Amino acid sequence: MDRRFLELASQEPRKVRMPRRHTMNAWLTLATLMASLVILSDGASGQAHGAAAASPPLDLGAKARQVLIDIYRKKNFTAIERSFSESFVQHDPTIADGLPGLKLFAAEVARSPAAKITVYRTLIDGDMVMLHSKVEGLRDFAAPRIAFDLFRFKDGKIVEHWGGQDAETAPNLSGHTQVDGATAVVDREKTEANRALVRAFKQTVTVELRFDRVGDFIDGDDYTQHASHMGDGTARLRARVSEVAKPGATPVLLPRLYVADGNFVLVLVEARTEPHPTANYDLFRVENGKIVEHWDVLSPIPPRAQWKNPNGAF
């Protein structure tokens, strides 16, 4: 056998050496890849942690309900400091302005140990919340009170309030109470269309008194009425509006504020009725582009000298 071949066979295999420049480039490539993986891992972890740590969206409706529960049921005065802004403005003419006025109101409620509240409907419209409720057990009132409350929020606290109440009555001519009926908020994608429908109805029928246009907004007699001393259908609606507003006269039913959430729209109306003006809270339910149900409170506005705040009911 060839001696040269035997010498080569007896030697250890030689290591293959890469040029130094190529070795450095390989290490740099590997290091860059590992760093990228670490960054991606940290980023995903940070995003997941951020999502877990982020607080859920503030439910203004629940916050407003809790305020009334704290005042009426729990008689908890700390709810005022916790939930209302220092710059709070009161529009209910029966309650004094600011936080001091609220504390006086809460103290008055606390004098009625049996006082309680049941909230039937909640609407949320941006920074506005509407509650439709029944208050019972107030010692200064023989009957329960049906109430609408409007709250405006800013930075998580209530900065403004409008409210109206009226006595609970027996079921109306069609057997409906002031609080029964549909409660679920649906069709939120139709909120603005429903707001526009109710706005047009109010302007056309109750301001301009175009009763011939009622059918544009209400489908025949498919109209459930919860207002006291009234009944279902449009004939009674026409009669009621005619009692307080006369064609050719100065408008007496002036819409001031709209709050809409899905299939529900609330209208706060200034009613310049004689002999006593009222703040009318009209709540409508819309279905398939027509108004199908109505609730209200006609809250008396006392003479200006008896207002407990200077802000007005609207």
Report on this model:
With 314 residues, this protein is of the alpha+beta class. It is built from 7 helices and 10 strands. The strands form 2 sheets. A 5-stranded mixed beta sheet has the order 1-5-4-3-2. A 5-stranded mixed beta sheet has the order 6-10-9-8-7, with helices on one face. The longest helix is centred in the first third of the chain and has 34 residues, at 20-53.
Task: Give a short summary of the structure.
It is built from seven helices and ten strands. The protein folds into two domains: 60-168, Nuclear Transport Factor 2, Chain: A (Roll); 188-301, Nuclear Transport Factor 2, Chain: A.
Architecture blueprint of SSEs:
Blueprint: H1 3-10, H2 20-53, H3 60-72, H4 78-83, E1 84-90, H5 98-110, E2 116-125, E3 128-136, E4 145-154, E5 157-167, H6 191-207, E6 224-225, H7 234-244, E7 253-261, E8 264-271, E9 278-287, E10 290-300
Parallel strand pairs: 1-5, 6-10
Antiparallel strand pairs: 2-3, 3-4, 4-5, 7-8, 8-9, 9-10
